[in-house]
Each structure stands twice: as C-alpha cells, then as structure tokens.
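Memo to structure team: turn this sequence into structure tokens by end of day. - J.P.
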Amino acid sequence: MDTTALVPALAFLADAANADLPPANPKPTSTTGQQETTRPLWQSPDGLVEVGVWECDPGRFTATRDGYDEVCQVLTGSATVHTEGGEAVELVPGSTLAMPAGWRGTWQVQETLRKVYVLRTHRAGA
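Reply from structure team:
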C-alpha cells in the first residue's frame, strides 16, 4: 500500500518577515482607517487551526477573540496592546503574545506590524 498520499504536505515560508503578501484592505475594526493583509499558510483538515502571516499599518483598532485563541510572534514593527481593564503590553520584533478566547482590547500600532499567527477555533458546544 502506498502511504505517501496519507502524509500531509509541509507548509513552509522561508522568510515570513519579507514574504510577499496580498494587497491590503480596510481593517473593519479600525478607528483610524488602517489597512491589513493576511497570508494564510496552513489550515488543519478539520478547519480548527490556522497558521499565517498578518500585517497592519499604523493606527488603532479594537479586537475581540470570540470563539478562538490566538498566539502570535511579532516579526517587524511595534504596537501597544491594551486589555479591557487596563493591562498594556509593548510588542516589538521577537515578542510573543497569547490571547485566549474571550479576550478583548485595543491595539495601537506605532510602526507597520507583521506577525506570524496561530488561531485555534473552539468547537461549538465544546
């Protein structure tokens, strides 16, 4: 039996910090008219996990992690993330941030920010 068809293909991006991304579009939750772009790299067969690269230009936007967790690693740029309730963290290249489902806050992007992200969607009722 040939098992090569059962082995998933690798998802690889040699230089995520400099990879080409699709054209940017308006960020729906921006309060300052920002643009964002996303390049999905991999999605699990069940659709519950996604890995990719995201970029957003300077400005401010609101964020809510309803029904999914996100872990991200900043590649370039800088931002301040404010959690509802007051906690703030400074993001610079090399920073890692985990936002659990239910997290709410705002992002203030000072320099165009690029990050690698992993999203884990929760199953309904789980």
